[in-house]
Amino acid sequence: MSPLRSLLCALLFASTLPAWADVGRDEAAAVAQRVASGRVLAVERAEAGGKPVWRVKILSAQGEVRVVVVDAASGRVVG
Question: What angle do CA 18, 72, 79 make, to 5 degrees?
Fold first, then answer.
């Protein structure tokens, strides 16, 4: 396969994937921490309403676990 064809195939494949790169895992965790002060337990990729989101689990100082959903494209908290 020629290098140009390989590049075109890679670009075509990449264009069919969700846009996860707009807001990264670390940025989503920081957004969630600002909203729900506490320690980040987990950050997972997910979908909400057909759109890519980050589900961030936060442990509060009171011992409560809260899930904050961050839009992967805009970085805004969903819901």
Answer: 125
| DSSP category for residue 76 | P
Supply the pTM of this predicted model: 0.72
Domains delineated in the chain: 19-78 (3.10.450.40)
Distance of CA 77 to the CA centre of its chain: 11
Q: What is the pLDDT of residues 21-60, one digit of tens each?
A: 589 999 999 999 999 999 999 999 999 999 999 999 999 9
Which of 15, 59, 64 is CA-nearest to residue 39? Answer: 59
What secondary structure letter does DSSP report for 37?
-
Secondary structure of 8-38 in HEC code, one letter for each residue: HHHHHHHHCCCCCCCCCHHHHHHHHHHHCCC
What's the CA gap between 40 and 5, in Å, rounded?
A: 43
